[in-house]
Amino acid sequence: MPAPIRLRELIRTIRTARTQAEEREMIQKECAAIRSSFREEDNTYRCRNVAKLLYMHMLGYPAHFGQLECLKLIASQKFTDKRIGYLGAMLLLDERQDVHLLMTNCIKNDLNHSTQFVQGLALCTLGCMGSSEMCRDLAGEVEKLLKTSNSYLRKKAALCAVHVIRKVPELMEMFLPATKNLLNEKNHGVLHTSVVLLTEMCERSPDMLAHFRKNEKLVPQLVRILKNLIMSGYSPEHDVSGISDPFLQVRILRLLRILGRNDDDSSEAMNDILAQVATNTETSKNVGNAILYETVLTIMDIKSESGLRVLAINILGRFLLNNDKNIRYVALTSLLKTVQTDHNAVQRHRSTIVDCLKDLDVSIKRRAMELSFALVNGNNIRGMMKELLYFLDSCEPEFKADCASGIFLAAEKYAPSKRWHIDTIMRVLTTAGSYVRDDAVPNLIQLITNSVEMHAYTVQRLYKAILGDYSQQPLVQVAAWCIGEYGDLLVSGQCEEEEPIQVTEDEVLDILESVLISNMSTSVTRGYALTAIMKLSTRFTCTVNRIKKVVSIYGSSIDVELQQRAVEYNALFKKYDHMRSALLERMPVMEKVTTNGPTEIVQTNGETEPAPLETKPPPSGPQPTSQANDLLDLLGGNDITPVIPTAPTSKPASAGGELLDLLGDINLTGAPAAAPAPASVPQISQPPFLLDGLSSQPLFNDIAAGIPSITAYSKNGLKIEFTFERSNTNPSVTVITIQASNSTELDMTDFVFQAAVPKTFQLQLLSPSSSIVPAFNTGTITQVIKVLNPQKQQLRMRIKLTYNHKGSAMQDLAEVNNFPPQSWQ
């Protein structure tokens, strides 16, 4: 068989290929020749063939068929064969293939070889791809080499030990004795790898970290090495751009950061050397900047002195003036992390940070924007907002949403006056109205409503802002709302803050009608405009007939929302005209009521108003029929009293029939609690006769243990069980816990349980634990019912179940009459 071509010739041939297909053809032809050579057990050219195979692997072609050949080369006695064999093993093998275990014995033999270069090959391979099994078997040999006097082997053994610790952390203590003398080595390679090993041990084990801090006195040793590096003269072997071994300096600074974190003594010991590094390092080259950056991170992470922290922030401030964009980005990111702890020191560089907003690099611009918002406070709010508003005008669209949100939050927190606050938010809406958050409109409306003295000024500013420009929809919505609320102030020209403008009622209506017919107006904006026009029917005197015509036109709009509003407003004009002025009177001041969460603000007909939470006493007279009575009809009969909901939900007066319901003032004794009240609605007190004093003492009586449970419902795989408890404070109250289980193969979703009892009882349904009943009885839904039975009558209950199962909506009614006597006697 002819001798295969050399690696150099193969590379030259492949590079002559003009197309990808031609290259693939050459590779396939050479792979076939290599396979043939492997089958013939040709030991002469095995090394050459594996080398070519590794080159093909680097080009992205499959070379797995050469794995066993690599093992044969490793077992060879020739150094050239071993070198290629170990290189192939590192490239073609990993711990996912069982083949790698076959080389464990070869590596062990080579670790004990008489030639240091063979030992070095074995250490490199084990440190690169050794599995946890190999590391356990060979850790002893690595530990021996770590103690040898040969610096070439010690540095490789230290790196191999790092890999062993990562794979098998419990072997860490084996290397502890060998680390004692590592830092006394003069060789920089050994020092570097030793610091890497110590860093790995400290990061992975708090016990090791404490040991090195207290027993080994590691910090003074590192300080001594670092000081020697700084003070040493020119050394051509380690010099990089005039700095002695910057790689070792960076590694030592990282290890000092770990040792000094949350430790006063260690931090105190390294303060001086950190100050020396910060002041003596040259900043004209990137090498010096890298060391300074690591120094800053170390200073900020340990318990350093305040003067040292100021020095670190000043270094970052100098970074901001660097022409290299990467250095500026690093400085902004670091300042953003430290601004909360060293706010005043960072403030000194505010002008430089603001200048970064004008940078062409988008990543620097974003970091500068985030840092600028972090620097805003009550003293600089006006100046910072001026810069940020200028940035908002000129920045790319992807920045506008975040910038607008940041300005809103800062203005709300630090606004020097209400006028300034309103002007700032209006400026944002004018500049980037399409990018603001959804809550910007209701928040601004609330701010305007609460600023009573600013109503005339605000409505005049908003009117001028939208003249002929409806592109910023949130601004148009706020303007329409304010014109509807304060249109009389606009027409009267009562503005004192600036020169009033002369506007007629017809001109105001022209603007609102233009909003209604504009192609740029969304459905929500048109709703705001139509509601504003309706409100003006009570503010204006000369244009009521025109308003009636506009409203009647939209009664046949194809937009269902507008049509509903127009129909309701027409009904106000025709049937309830005597109530129109009262219903459309000016909004009261909105007060934020925080209830363990955000303020409850609801939208009503394009207006924003607080959601009052109150309960009405049940009326004494006969009640009109309603949706609640329909449920009672379903449950059957007139002797059933509906449940008392746990917490009545506050419903927004939407554009549907709710407004007409308000006009009719329909009141009910209660409504079926088909679903739990929203979590954000605060709980309110219940009628005293039902839960009076229930939570002031232990809730349940010991006799509850003797009440047997019952199966209230079992059908179509759904089973409802009742368990009972009696109140300790009110014997007339029975607490029933329902448990719903599902034995079918599919979940039952949207499960709702409703119940009703005779009028001599009072019933309360609490929130269910879930709305999904898991299949195969793998879980249950629980819900609590509290029943007041003052006359000790036999308990009866009708239940209604609704749920979705197998894609169908299911509904069923049942009556429960088998309550045990202990539950009601």
UniProtKB/TrEMBL annotation:
Coiled coil: none annotated. Residues 600-630 are annotated as: Disordered. GO terms for biological process: endosome to melanosome transport; Golgi to lysosome transport; intracellular protein transport; positive regulation of natural killer cell degranulation. The keyword Membrane applies. It is found in: Cytoplasm, Perinuclear region; Cytoplasmic vesicle, Clathrin-coated vesicle membrane; Golgi apparatus; Membrane, Clathrin-coated pit. Residues 705-820 form the GAE domain. The keyword Cell inner membrane does not apply. Pfam families: Adaptin_N, Alpha_adaptinC2. It comes from the Eukaryota. InterPro entries: Adaptor_Complx_Large_Subunit, AP1_complex_gsu, ARM-like, ARM-type_fold, Clathrin/coatomer_adapt-like_N, Clathrin_a/b/g-adaptin_app_Ig, Clathrin_app_Ig-like_sf, GAE_dom. GO terms for cellular component: AP-1 adaptor complex; clathrin-coated pit; cytosol; perinuclear region of cytoplasm; recycling endosome; trans-Golgi network. GO terms for molecular function: GTP-dependent protein binding; kinesin binding; small GTPase binding. SUPFAM superfamilies: ARM repeat (SSF48371), Clathrin adaptor appendage domain (SSF49348). It is a peripheral membrane protein. Keywords: Coated pit, Cytoplasm, Cytoplasmic vesicle, Golgi apparatus, Membrane, Protein transport, Transport. Gene3D superfamilies: 2.60.40.1230, Leucine-rich Repeat Variant. Belongs to the adaptor complexes large subunit family. Subunit of clathrin-associated adaptor protein complex 1 that plays a role in protein sorting in the late-Golgi/trans-Golgi network (TGN) and/or endosomes. The AP complexes mediate both the recruitment of clathrin to membranes and the recognition of sorting signals within the cytosolic tails of transmembrane cargo molecules. PANTHER family: ADAPTIN, ALPHA/GAMMA/EPSILON (PTHR22780). This is AP-1 complex subunit gamma. It comes from Oryctolagus cuniculus (Rabbit).
